[in-house]
Design brief:
Elements lengths: L18 E9 L5 E10 L8 E11 L2 E11 L5 E10 L2 E10 L4 E6 L4 E5 L5 E2 H13 L6 E6 L1 E17 L2 E13 L4 E9 L6 E8 L2 E8 L1
Length: 223
């Protein structure tokens, strides 16, 4: 679980605009429950001046616990303003902030230990959490971005492929979904994940699956 951000692909925040809070069971390949994740959004309506997203993940196996928090601030078009990250993996703790300065052509990354670095970005850069909602909005419009860069510490390239209709089974029962296969390529890593989106008006993410050699690590929506 070193790079748990790719589970991203949801505690509602504030009271302005439309809000959403989705809860997920985090399961190991065997079906063993490891914990929960909450994906939340504030200011989702079209008139919002800015948007706020938050992901909280708590999972554990004997002798090792993961407690992660991500807070993303974005413009109405889901272009990022700021991403705060707090990670606790066992005894290791990491905190950082990325400020997106598109007018200056870079994002500035600051760590709790005082380190700073700059990442070149374009006019509309999206952090990994803001991209989750951007992708959902694209699906509402009947579009699938084929390739896009997202930012989480470093820049990662996402290649997205529509993999057809699917019928999945959640603890609450069967669901009809659209399956996307997402390849995530980083500076020194590569991951492939599957995400199943509901056919409701909000294109709710129902299931995230991360294929691993020993089986699939999943996050399942709790109804």
């Amino acid at each position: 679980m070193k790079h748990c951000w790719y589970l991203i692909p949801f505690v509602a925040l504030g009271l302005q605009g439309a809000t959403e809070a989705l809860r997920y069971n985090v399961n190991w390949a065997s079906g063993l429950s490891l914990g929960e994740a909450t994906l939340a959004a504030d200011n989702l309506d079209a008139s919002a001046a800015s948007r706020r997203f938050q992901l909280n993940l708590e999972a554990s196996i004997p002798g090792f616990a993961v407690v992660d928090e991500f807070i993303s601030l974005a413009k109405p078009d889901y272009c990022s303003i700021q991403l705060d990250t707090k990670l606790k993996h066992g005894s290791k703790v990491r905190e950082e902030r990325i400020e997106f300065k598109s007018a200056e052509g870079f994002a500035e990354r600051k760590t709790m230990k005082g380190g700073t670095s700059k990442i070149p970005i374009g006019a509309c850069a999206r952090d990994a959490l803001a991209f989750v909602y951007h992708l959902r909005n694209e699906l509402k419009l009947g579009r699938i971005p084929s390739r896009e860069a997202v930012y989480f510490g470093s820049a990662y390239t996402l290649t997205i492929k529509y993999a057809g209709n699917a019928n999945i089974t959640l603890p609450s029962g069967p669901e009809a979904a659209d399956k996307l296969e997402i390849l995530i390529q980083g500076p020194a890593s590569k991951h492939a994940i599957e995400v199943y989106y509901g056919r409701d008006a909000q294109r709710t993410p129902l299931l995230f699956r991360v294929p691993l050699p020993l089986g699939a690590f999943t996050m399942e929506l709790q109804r």
